[in-house]
Amino acid sequence: MGPPLLKDASFNITRTLWRRNLDATWSFQAVSIFSGKIDTYSNNNARGIGLPKSFHVDSIQHWEPFSHDGISYDLGHLDSHEVVFQKEGAPISFVVTYGLHCFTKDGTEHNIPLMYADGRHSQLVCLERYEASKQLKSMIERLGSGAWIYLTQGESFFTLDVMNNESGELEPFKICMAIFREHRVLRIHVTSAFFARTGEGSPEVPVNKKGFSIFKVAVDTLKKPKGQCPKEVRNRHKK
Predict the structure, then answer these.
(1) Angle at 134 (CA atoms; ends 124, 173), nearest 5 degrees
(2) How far from 167 is each of 101, 104, 160, 171, 191, CA to CA, in Å?
(3) Does residue 149 carry a pLDDT above 70?
(4) Are residues 184 and 84 part of one domain?
(5) Are residues 94 and 210 in the same domain?
(6) Spatial strand order in the sheet of 13-20
(7) What is the residue range of 10's domain?
(8) N-terminal to C-terminal alpha carbon distance within the chain
(9) Reduced to 3 states, what is the DSSP secondary structure of residue 225?
(10) Could you write out the DSSP letters of every residue in 157-204?
(11) Cys bridge to 233: 32, 71, 109, 229, which one at CB 3.0-4.6 A?
(12) CB distance 60 to 71 below 8 Å
């Protein structure tokens, strides 16, 4: 029998959350607007809700939410996803995953006293990075419309002017990535993303190197041996 939300018109969802269980299955949590009761359903009983898609890649694909001072912070916007770019000819598809440093950083004025860990290490949550990370998916999609990728030793990056919700000002934002081939899949793994206030890409230090389009980078990546990527990409918790 399916859950009430599929059959009972009086049951409406105000908040939904997928959770990964210890046995690697998924469960769905929903809140009734009438009773406030939290009901949990297995994946088999939650048809049509939209289970997070999983890909055959060796990176964290779903980040669990965290809580601080009674506030829950969702990380569903950093779930793995597919992005497709098309300029001429056949479309180019990448599987995108995100790393711990997209929402953590030790030693900032925006830290909260909460450590978050992946399968490699742990860092303090940075609320400035967390808030900005909500825009990362749309930033990645903009690679197909003219954002230049700059290549460095071991990884790549691009910059965009992004609204800082705290300051209310546009600031240069730097997205660091590993672009590689995993199995037969083109991959983007965002290793870190932050407002660039110092170093290359900041207002005082403009990028002084040749940029490449995502289409050029994709063609070059397909020519490389599969699996060449920074160690940060393999960030899953050990079983």
Answers:
(1) 80
(2) 21, 19, 17, 9, 25
(3) yes
(4) yes
(5) yes
(6) 13-20, 26-32, 38-42
(7) 1-50
(8) 33
(9) coil
(10) EEEEEEEETTTTEEEEEEEEEEEEEETTEEEEEEEEEEE--SSTTBTT
(11) 229
(12) no
